[in-house]
Design goal:
Elements (H helix, E strand, L loop, with lengths): L2 H12 L3 H7 L5 E4 L3 E6 L4 E9 L32 E5 L10 H7 L5 E5 H5 L1 H12 L5 E8 L16 E8 L4 E8 L11 E2 L4
Antiparallel strand pairs: 1-2, 2-3, 3-6, 4-5, 6-7, 7-8, 8-9
Length: 203
């Protein structure tokens, strides 16, 4: 970049708010892996697009208490304002209860990288009950679990900037058996038990 262009760009950015500057730099995909999960995060949508984690027979050693979600340096995510006074829960993708074996693991699940705008009755109902079933299955064998958030054309965008997934897909791979189970949930109040959201899963 030559000096004239550099000066011109600096002039433009000085006239922008911090939010406008961030908007110019938002990434459609950021891939981050830590000791709990691997996530494909969209700064544009302010939501995870895909996330994988492993569910194993971990002993519970810590409680969540008053722990709440935290932002991560260097990644533009949703925040508490996206979840204020509306029907959208801060939905864990990698479940807190699955990673209650240590404080560090539990704290890691409370990252906004692991948080999605999930309809409250889904989060507290069918989705939660399926997570409970995962912890029964992982007593027998380890599970590799992938969650995909689908954003169909015309999906809702909150005034605060968060995009609401229209569908959430969970694929559970049973490592010992080499089999899988797949569940497709519309991101809305459930109308049937969790087991009835299962669809055919091809390995």
């Amino acid at each position: 970049m030559n000096l004239l262009k550099s000066i011109f760009l600096t002039f433009l950015l000085v006239g922008c708010s911090p939010e406008e500057i961030v908007a110019q730099e938002l990434r459609s995909e950021v891939i981050i892996e830590n000791e709990v999960f691997k996530v494909w995060y969209s700064e544009v949508l302010e939501q995870p697009v895909k996330l994988t984690y492993t569910s194993t027979n971990r002993e519970k050693n810590v409680d969540r208490g008053n722990m709440d979600f935290h932002k991560e340096n260097g990644v533009h995510t949703s925040d508490k304002h996206d979840y204020y006074s509306n029907p959208w829960d801060k939905g864990h993708l990698a479940p807190a209860a699955t990673y209650s074996d240590s404080y560090n693991n539990l704290y890691t699940t409370f990252s906004y990288l692991n948080c999605t705008l999930q309809q409250q009755d889904l989060n507290r109902g069918a989705w939660r009950l399926l997570e409970q079933e995962e912890r029964v299955w992982d007593d027998v064998q380890n599970l590799t679990i992938t969650i995909e958030n689908i954003f169909e054309e015309g999906h809702t965008v909150l005034p605060t900037g968060g995009h609401i997934p229209t569908t959430m897909i969970k694929t559970i791979y049973f490592e010992q058996d080499g089999t899988c189970r797949k569940f497709v949930f519309p991101n809305e109040k459930p109308t049937k038990p969790w087991i009835e959201y299962e669809v055919t899963c091809s390995n």
